[in-house]
Batch of 2 targets.
Target 1
Amino acid sequence: MARSEVSNSVETRVIDWPAASRLAEAAATEAGRLGVRVNVAVADAAGFLAAFIRMPGAPLHSIEIAIDKAYTAASFGLPTARWHDALASHAEAARQGIVLRPRFVAFGGGLPVVERGHVIGAIGVSGGSEAQDEVCVRWPRRSRPCRSATGPFATLRCLLHFRITRTSLERSCTIPNRSPRQAVNPARNRVCG
């Protein structure tokens, strides 16, 4: 009689370190283009830090805020900027209680990283205004496909796929003296070959 094995585990996909590093670098590059100093954190699917960049001169308190934005986005698979709307239909106790949780961030600058429908990590940016953090955190998605990428992420767009529409991206780009289209023009900055 054949013995059947019962599995007591599930497979989890996580962002690998080269992709996490490229993602953090792309966000920091965009911050430099905008003239702001930020901290960029990339977390894996479990919320553990996978990559981090602190630009010289970035606010020190923003280090933990960037990490917590990535943690929050990875934990729930929801951009941190969408929490206000997401909680609107819940009871007052839920709205007040969740924002008091340690490491929970309910303002812009954190996005989940999604591959083939699975959250594999998240990115958090902090140091600029909320709008500037949003531009930086969203910039890597606007990049062209990597032709030089290898390994399990070779089929991804350069620094991963996201499900954000151009309209919502343009609404979040309110940098003074710069139109939304200028702030997110992918032709101006290619992250990968």
Note: The CA atoms of residues 80 and 179 lie 23 Å apart.
Target 2
Amino acid sequence: MRAEVDWLTLYRLRDGRIAEAWPYLAPPARRSLRRVPRYSLDGVRAATDGPHRDLVARATEVLSGDPRLVAAWLVGSLANGDADPFSDVDLRCAVADESFEDVRSSWRSIVDRIAPTVSVREIPGQVGGVCVTPDWLHFDVVFYAASAADVAEVAPLFDRAGLLPATRVAKPVPRGEPFYPAGAVETFLYMLGNMVAVVGRDEVVPGMNGVGVVRDVALVGLLLAENGIATLRDPRSANPFPFTKRLRAYLTEEQNALLASLPPLAPTMDSVIESYVALARAFLPRAKALAARTGAEWPDAYERATVAYFERMTGASL
């Protein structure tokens, strides 16, 4: 048997010494929270990763005690070494091939043994689910047949079949050279022209939603492309949003300041239009500069037509 961990030691330790015994949950230095006058954030400030440690210890006890399972490991931030008190616990399990159909029909009973839950939502196309405890600790459990297990990103918990590396293998964010994000440019120009329809229909809520899409898909996608990053999600995901709950660390100070400088969005059409104007003034010069830098063809005719239509219909100037 390989990749064993002294789980009794893990479970008993409660202070900083845990990092010496088991480094996967050692969080990076916590950034001090900006003071927010309206809310105390006492719970956020006091949060620790203790519940994560306890859940992983209990999960390892349950999973290693099930003879149908031959290995278990962590993925996500716990495997990559950047976990914090707000991280999910992402558990992956390899099942002996001959037992896989049995686990497929009974995996919820394994979840019940790991922790009490208030929600268990099956993950489409996989065997396993997204689980939430009464204290709102989010953990995922996914089961693979041992012969088809994906172990590219691993923090091993136990291994009875020699499937896992002996130590943690992080999965770095794919970062290369800056590139022209054609999809982000297409999204931006289409949304800029299409927003005239929500103005004409006086549909403020769809207009506000469009602002969020343009910022998060188009502008953030552009900023990541400037840094050579296509997405912070699993590249196999079809989700167009390029990030989930982490972003700041992958952007420069200037890029973060740009996002912070965008005007706050209010539920008025004036605010929607002002937001589009600010986004256009931020996006278009940077996108054209990146196209020139990377030798990509800029859609001049599409940009001219879209900007002219937006300005003509709204009276705003970009």
Note: Residues 1-30 have pLDDT under 50 and may be disordered.
